[in-house]
Design goal:
This protein has 139 residues and is mostly helical. It has one domain. 47% of the residues lie in helices and 0% in strands.
Length: 139
Amino acid sequence: MPWTEPIIDRTFADVINGTSKGYINASDLNRIEGNCEYLADKLTEYGYRISISTKTDWTMQDFPYRSEIDRIRDNVNALINAYYKMQGSPDIRYWGSLDWRDANSLEQNIKNIDILLQRMIAGFKRCGTFRSGQEVVLL
């Protein structure tokens, strides 16, 4: 799955005004689940053990029952537990529903994991760019 930029700026005004960010639809669920799958694949590629269950074919006719929403929450928690939770990341709330705050929390955690992952990748030494035993001078 390719990475899709998360939506993390939903507000109560979006709910009241009925904007597209004011409710969760199939494209939101597919983005969240696709990004979880993307991160799980990347983390596995770099040696982290992660096992999640995703559904990336949500349609407008599908209704996300609580068990499916909790599975999504479990996936995000599994990613955090397999890797890291960025300081300041919101807690993931388990309760009988999913509101705009919960969607923001899920997607913010997903985005933060990707930020940390990209920082880790950027810090990798590439073969041929250093010599064993060479002296390094930090400026």
